[in-house]
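Box S2. Input/output pair 1.
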Amino acid sequence: MSELHNQLRGTPCEVFSKDTKVRSGPAPKPFQPPKGLYSYPDVLVVCGEMKFHDEHRDVLLNPTVIIEVLSPATEVFDLGEKWARYQMWLPSLTDYLLVSQSKLLIEHYRRQPDSEWLYSSVNGLEGSMSLASIGCTLRLADFYDRIVFSAELPESAD
């Protein structure tokens, strides 16, 4: 994500890696187990002052952009329950991107002024995606640099 970092240099936005915890559920109650209340996005962008859950400053409340890299093990969760949580509990979120590991494809959900989400997708190395909320353009060629996809097996003739 060095390209994203480079494009955001000199702006109020900052890129963070998968080690940043984000609240993706209601505020925890005392003695409540935290399961399902937090997520670790693969990449996220925060614009402006970072807001945290408490004085420990380890749970972020206001990401602007979240990027998830889909794997066979995480795809259903990232497209389902996690995405639903992000929509409900992260009013600061403007863009949610899903990057496929199995094909050249990035799916983009963009929050509209009426809080509805607009879906678009881009495929092919020549494709790019504009994130107006942070003033960046992401090229698929940068996401998939040095990635080689295995050729699909031909169907057998019976």
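Box S3. Input/output pair 2.
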Amino acid sequence: MPLLFDKLVKGPVFGCQQCGQCLLSQTGYVCPMTCPKGLRNGPCGGTLDGACEVFPDRPCVWLRIDSKTEPAPGLHQPFDPALVETSSLGNFVSGRDRSTRLVKTYRPRPGSENDTPSVLAQRFESAAPVVTYEIASPRKVSGLERVAATVEAIRGIVDGINTTTNAGGIPSLHSLETARVVAANGIPPIVQFCGRDQNADEFRDEIAVALNDGFANILALTGDWNPNTERNLSSEYWFPMDSLQMVDLLASHNDFVKRPFIGVASNPYTTPISASLDRLNAKLQAGADFTQTQAVTETAVFGTWLAAVRKLPGGERLRVLPSVPLIGKPRPLEILKNLAGVRLDPGFASQLERPGDLANNGLAAALTLIRELLQMDIDGIHLMNFGVPVSAVIDVVSTVKEEFGARQAVAQHG
């Protein structure tokens, strides 16, 4: 009978999805579980122009919530699947929902000499900019040979390599498998995990393996919707975790004797900008050390966002790496245009459409963008390859290092 109240009353009035661990009183009486990803701590990075990443014709649920409430002083733990389709009133009275209904205070453990030593973290302390690169984990083991060849070619050139898992929601080998190939070639891997792909217990086990293997750099993402999965609003498709919950576990869990160097994603182009800043601030307070952004294709909006990030509590210590796309072929360009949360600036797009070879135009556009970014208060550049040869990547990195060095020299003698 109590469950019927959720279905017959709370459903029509508040959009209740019968999660059994109700947050309505904390979310302006807008059910957060009407988010197709089931996110309980704010919007994902795919929110553009106030629209949902999964259903672009619908407003983002969390932007509606944010318009009615103040940001929570902590986070909500991952929802308990055992409580779904049970009575929220009964669970409230019995206390079964307390661990997932009540806000948890951020309690990140400080770093110490016992932390997993991160070469990447050490390079952030140097005068040169950090340059990271992205390699998608292949779908099959045979694809690791391609990864090894790429890594060998850029060894000594970049400071770290993201081992992307299930890019774009498409299943692939685990990021740990790709990370082992990267590490074997002497480059620090940045091992990526998505809340979409595992529950908290599974995530804890995988992180233990990563730390035991000496992988000190962890990138925590909520994840994209799998394009091969039906776009439907159902508890069957709720993500087990979100990135904020992952950061909290990484930074505070006592099972990890060594604390990793924690990275997150951020989107300067989320609108309103407050949604992006509130979300990044939460990750920062939970224990994030660095952020790589969604693809940056212009600098005006990015500069406004970056200035606001530096004013967040602790924002001056957050390492910020804007992601710059290197576009060399038409098909990867189409992929970029359709990636969740990406806004392709018209000015950047017009540079790609100039007469001549797309690869040359793409590299010229990227270098123009990088030169503008290097004038800002960034800590490095993250390169995303959309169809350019590895030799071109090496040239871009060399340009970054040279021009940043020249800028530093001018500043020192200015």
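Caption for Box S3: The mean pLDDT is 89. The longest strand covers residues 319-327.
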